[in-house]
Design a protein that fits this description.
The protein has 187 residues and is an alpha+beta fold. The chain has 7 helices and 5 strands; from the N terminus they run ααβααααββββα. The protein is globular and about 55 Å long.
Length: 187
């Protein structure tokens, strides 16, 4: 399903233009709760995320930020404690969605019908424009609670020097299996 015209105006960056944003079109390649393997070693996501000014400015503006440290690259270069744009802490979610791709381990975060009841973001040091981020992750747990299927994803963000920049631990309520996901995708 193509993006509706009224949403096309929200697509600005090169990554956004290239990002497959119709999760309903790829739902069959996403993990569901019953298929999510738990534990094991960290897995490196198939893509890396090069943080560009346009990515940061667009994300920060979409969050309603107006502080010039977050939306004005020239101002931020002169006044920011990081020497550049301040990256919104929740920006890591964009990195995860981009890096995981359309299919394979961890893609249950894109499954139609998934709901996010919990996340814990811990930035060890600020993300910076120009850094290339490698995502390493693992499905850390899945369980039933109040009749719902929960799964946990633990994400670790490293720059190209191998420095751990931060972590994102999230829980999602997921469709139990492909049939349950299909009902959301085809509703």
């Amino acid at each position: 399903m193509p993006i509706p015209d009224h949403l096309n105006s929200l697509i600005h960056t090169e990554k956004q233009k290239a990002f497959p944003n119709d999760f309903l079109a790829t739902w069959q390649s996403h993990e569901t709760w019953d298929l999510a393997d738990i534990g094991g070693d960290l897995v490196e996501a198939p893509k890396k995320f090069k943080i560009l000014s346009e990515d940061v400015v667009d994300y920060n503006l979409s969050c309603g930020e107006k502080d010039p440290l977050m939306v004005d690259p020239e101002y931020a270069a002169k006044h920011s404690p990081t020497g550049g744009l301040v990256v919104h802490p929740v920006f890591v979610t964009a990195i995860v969605f981009y890096c995981l791709g359309d299919a394979g381990k961890g893609t249950w975060i894109r499954t139609p019908g998934a709901r996010n009841p919990y996340q814990d973001i811990d930035l060890k040091e600020p993300l910076k424009v120009g850094e290339e981020i490698t995502l390493k992750f693992r499905n850390s747990d899945k369980y039933l609670q109040r009749g719902k299927n929960y799964a946990n994803l633990d994400c670790y963000f490293y720059n190209s020097e191998g420095v751990l920049k931060g972590t994102w631990l999230c829980a999602l309520i997921l469709p139990e299996n492909k049939e349950a996901a299909r009902k959301y995708a085809e509703a």
